[in-house]
Predict the structure.
Amino acid sequence: MERALVIGGTRFIGRHLVEELLEHHYDVTIFTRGTRDDPFADDDRVTHREGDRTNDSALEAAAADVDPDAVFDCVAYHPKDVRAATRLFADVDAYVYVSSGAAYGSEEIPKREGETALEPCTTDQETDDSSETYGNRKAEGDRAVFAAAERGVNAMSVRPCIVYGPHDYTERLDFWIDRVNEYDRVLVPGDGTNVWHRAYVEDVASALRIVAERGEPGEAYNVGDRRLVTLGESIELIASALDTSVEVVDAGRRELEAGELEPADFPFYRSYPHVLSTAKLAGLGWESTPLSTAIDRSVADHRESDRDGADHDPGREAEERVLGILETM
């Protein structure tokens, strides 16, 4: 494969994907609306096409002009987008849809491709834009990929769990980095052992490329860190990357109520473990970045940014009330 079209490509996963493809000597074209800063604006290795991916005519024109070998669909949030793309790019060597671990509809440990049930998706959910239907819509996008493969399209799906790393606009990890950087004591919901599988963004980018090159049409591939960590361990890794020490203070639901808080107010908390099997992807030769390296790079990027995760802040004053109560127990 030589020519790649990235639908998206300037913000987070897509940005890292473009860098990954350039490192592997692809001719890269990005297709975006042009509403965000373009980190590749001055890079003559990247061709830019402006258009709305929900406009089939614009996407069809891109298909004709670029004639890509591989298409990476980073911003397909509705099933109709996937159906349109798999029709317009029916003749490419690889169409790779960025799905999500949220597509799984059954709580199993681990969640496996082709075994764990996907979320259902009603007609109303297909066109909804709320976060509540995100997993349903991603699951229906997966089903659109499978249907396209049955028609002979070389379509595949990649399902990341929670993605983190440099340029992460969600700022979920930034919240915890900021807490460790600013305070000696960090309040953690539960007993610190809850697990919500995460994926380092550079590993997601390499997974997308490898699936395009080696994946099987009609297949889905999970991607996530090969080493699982608890929330408590994550905070210790962040402290190490910051070259500081921190006291991790666990708080159960009853203690949190004293600050009018609940566990779900904190990023990365999940009452039941969310774990994806990554064996299928590893079977293609994919490897994940060592966890300490991924955290070190994420912390370094945080320090150079103005991100602080404030949108996820449950309120430090409320946390201090809980910490004060725990101190007297």
